[in-house]
Each structure stands twice: as structure tokens, then as C-alpha cells.
Amino acid sequence: MERPILASMDIDAMRHNLTRIRELAPQTQVWSVIKANAYGHGFAAALKGLALTDGFALLDIQDARYLRENGWKGPILLLEGLFSADDLKLAFMLDCTLVVHTESQVAALETFDLTQHQAKPRPIYLKMNTGMNRLGFSPSDYRLMYHRLHAAGYAMHHMTHFANADRVDCLPSVGSQYDLFNEAITDLPGDTSTANSGAILWHRTVLGEWVRPGIMLYGASPSGSFADIAHANLKPVMRLSSEIISIQVVKKGEKVGYGGRFTAPEEMRIGIVACGYADGYPRSASDGTPVWVADGGDTSNGVICPLAGQVSMDMLTIDLRAAPLAKIGSKVELWGKHIPVDDVAQSAGTIGYELLCALAPRVPIQLVV
Predict the structure, then answer these.
(1) How sure is the predictor about 313, in pLDDT bands with cuts at 50, 70 and 90?
(2) Is the separation of the CB atoms in 193 and 209 below 8 Å?
């Protein structure tokens, strides 16, 4: 019998989230960001759930190859461009759109022989650093790079990335970055792509022609608070579930787990769940982190039981006082429909992005269509 842990990917929820993005940003086209193996959800899930996207955005050219080999014929955007000039031929063979953010990339594109790849002008998104200070050209250098690539025969478009779209009243602000970006591209033709999930949710005056949603496609929040996205009516896509595999009755004052972090305040039942940090559950999760438990045989009803004790490699322990009917074999949800991944992340001092991306390869994945 297989270990009971499972990550279920709700394809209808993914479709729903893409539809909500189109409703929130109706005048734009959508680059669906599926880097990091579709934020841990898998490319197979993304190809099904996001089949109606306008394009996919990712990092690795081998992931672009996977999309092509599995039937995707639409646009593919390589968000960090190429890491070697040797990959240019493959990128164009796969019909990828490149993001360009360094002078060395510009130089490689200038010297590349386009004669075998000129059925149409090769699209380029030139990236501007407007305050993120991570990738991109300064506004003062941007126009020169634009003209160099335009003269070399490329179809030019514009991109920047907001540092604080998930927040308000901070510097650099979304508005100031957007103004700087627009000033620098004055009179330069091309589409613009500026808005990440946070901008789509909370700053819809700065969207550009192409938006780049990531975390919201998967039903989690860019701010780290699920309450912040309630207005968007997004649905969680990933459900991490398992079962209780053992129950211990501990006396008042007894310790639970490595280091004895949890002390029983009274005689109580402790449920042992088949999930640990080697599955991607955060070891840093504190006592009290919510876990949903089916109390009895009816899996449609359940209660929240708090984490009780240090998460170990393969198991975690929960306080079953709120679930008197729970038994060995009772279903448990670590995050998903009943427990937002953002709530678990907050208890672990991190963000939902990290937990979704950290799903371990040993966890079986099921697509729920």
C-alpha cells in the first residue's frame, strides 16, 4: 500500500483563475507565468488548466521545449532571456520570445545570423530597471539598446517589473515606476508588459498591453494574506492531503516530537500525519499551524486541528482534541480548499510561493479534471 500523501491539482480551479484575471484586466493579453514547474503544480497541469492563455512565460529553454513537444503552439516568453549565446538557434527554432536585460545579450543578438529565422521579425522584450534593481537597463541606457536591436531586425517590445505591487505607500511606488517607464519609452513603438499579480489585483491603472500573472493563477496571494485576495474570488489549485497513520494518547506534561517543543496541557490524543519536511511541508511551522482533519468517516465535514510539535522529515503531529472521532486513516488536508496555503506560510514565517514551489518530487501528483 502506497504512502497516503497526495498533491491534487484542480484543473477547473486553474481555468477559473485565468478567467478571473481576464475579467480584472479585460483590455490586456495574458502571459501566464509557469516558471518553477508552474509554481510546483507541474507543466502537465498548466497545459490543461491554462490552455486558453495568450502565452506562457518561463525561465528554462528546456521547459519551452517540453511545451512544444506536448502540443503548445502559442507564444513562449523566456523571462531571463538566454544564459548562453549558443542557445539562440534553439530558442528561435522553438519560436520563443526573449527578454533582454544585459548588454551581452544585445551583442549576441546583433551578431546572430537571422537569415534562417526571418519568416517573421523575431520579437524581443527589452527590460528596464525602474527601481527593482534586479534585472534590466537603466532608463538612460534603455533607448540605445532599443535602437541597436531594432536596427538588427528585431520586433521590439517593452517590459519592467514592479518591486512593491503587493503593497501601498512604499518606495519605489508602483506609480513612480510606471511613470519612469513610460517617460523612457516615449515614441518607441512596441507592446508593453508591466503588471504582475499584485498590479492586476490592486493597481489596475498600470497594466500595459500584456499582463504577467503568476501566483494568482494558482489561487494564492502575492501579499501573503489570503484575506487580501478575497475580492478576486480566486480558487486554490493545489491540495496537499494525507492521512493519520497513528494516534498516541499522552498524559498531562508529556512532551511531543523532537526537542519536546509541545507539552500536553492535559491528557489528550496526538495524531501522527504522513507528511514532513521531505515532502515540502515547512519545518519552521509553529505550534498552532492549522491542519484540516475529517472528523469521522464523512470527508465532507472536518475541523481545524493545530500542529503540536516539531515537524520531522516524514511526519508531523497534531492536537486531536477538536476531532474526537478522528482515527487512523482519517483524511487530512495540509493546505488547499479548507486551509489556504498562505495561512500555513504565515505560521512558518514565509510566503505561499515558497511552499507551493517546494513540493517535493516524492509526492505523487493527481490532476483533477
Answers:
(1) very high
(2) yes
